[in-house]
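Structure in, sequence out. Go:
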């Protein structure tokens, strides 16, 4: 079980023994940002990016089950984006879990003073912004622009429309007749749900979205730095300022400056990592 779980995570028991522990994160950018900003703290840990949070959570549960059964494990650490899905996973002695308190790691890079120094400097961007006010306004407007997409997603999901996709578990070991009946039943359910859709539904959908947006707007006005999609924000920012370096190099530049200046967001992440690794 242990070997299978580690192999699914892209590592091994032998590799784990070479380091004080293995730190799994959600993507390559996270590895590079953390190494740039916290290299000294993490120098004895092997950082590895893993895509597909659902599969990683499955492997965490397998490792923790092996630990409960008395198996000897090397320390493993897992860091998740918060996104819109708070995790219910808890740390154990050898398998420890951290979920960012902000939506993702990039949200901690939203340090207006640091970004102003970079985004107003022609050495770093081809389309420099004028001052801190312009930097702050641009970032805020890009974040608030995500709100329509967020509320549309939430309201649409609330209708709980049947998904027409074919589920492997439903057809495994069944004959064609059983498979056809399963799929036909699903399609009939979808037809019943969507058969009466018309312009009235569109108006209803818009009305629900507007009400949800009205509820969220005050929160986002004060917490956009924590709640917006930070990865998306930096991608949108790239289109506006045309950095002279790649997006990941821009993020690393930001985290380096945050570290040099001991900014609040930098120390917040440091504190979370130290707690995870302690």
């Amino acid at each position: 079980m242990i070997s299978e779980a580690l192999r699914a995570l892209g590592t091994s028991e032998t590799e784990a023994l070479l380091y004080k522990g293995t730190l799994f994160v959600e993507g390559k950018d996270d590895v590079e940002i953390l190494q740039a900003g916290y290299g000294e703290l993490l120098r004895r840990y092997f950082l590895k990016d893993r895509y597909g949070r659902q599969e990683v959570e499955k492997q965490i549960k397998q490792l923790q089950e092996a630990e409960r059964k008395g198996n000897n494990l090397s320390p493993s650490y897992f860091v998740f984006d918060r996104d819109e899905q708070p995790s219910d996973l808890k740390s154990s002695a050898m398998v420890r879990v951290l979920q960012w308190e902000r939506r993702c790691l990039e949200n901690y890079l939203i340090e207006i003073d640091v970004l102003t120094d970079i985004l107003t400097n022609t050495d770093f961007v081809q389309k420099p912004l004028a001052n801190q006010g312009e930097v702050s306004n641009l970032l805020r407007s890009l974040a608030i622009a995500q709100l329509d997409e967020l509320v549309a997603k939430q309201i649409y999901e609330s209708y709980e429309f049947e998904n027409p996709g074919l589920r492997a578990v439903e057809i495994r070991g069944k004959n064609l007749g059983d498979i056809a009946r399963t799929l036909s039943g699903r399609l009939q359910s979808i037809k019943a749900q969507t058969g009466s859709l018309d312009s009235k539904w569109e108006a209803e959908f818009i009305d629900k979205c507007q009400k949800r947006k009205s509820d969220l707007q005050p929160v986002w006005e004060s917490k956009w730095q924590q709640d917006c999609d930070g990865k998306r924000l930096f991608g949108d920012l790239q289109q506006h300022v045309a950095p002279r370096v790649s997006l990941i190099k821009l993020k690393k530049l930001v985290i380096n400056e945050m570290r040099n200046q001991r900014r609040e967001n930098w120390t917040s992440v440091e504190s979370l990592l130290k707690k995870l690794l302690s």
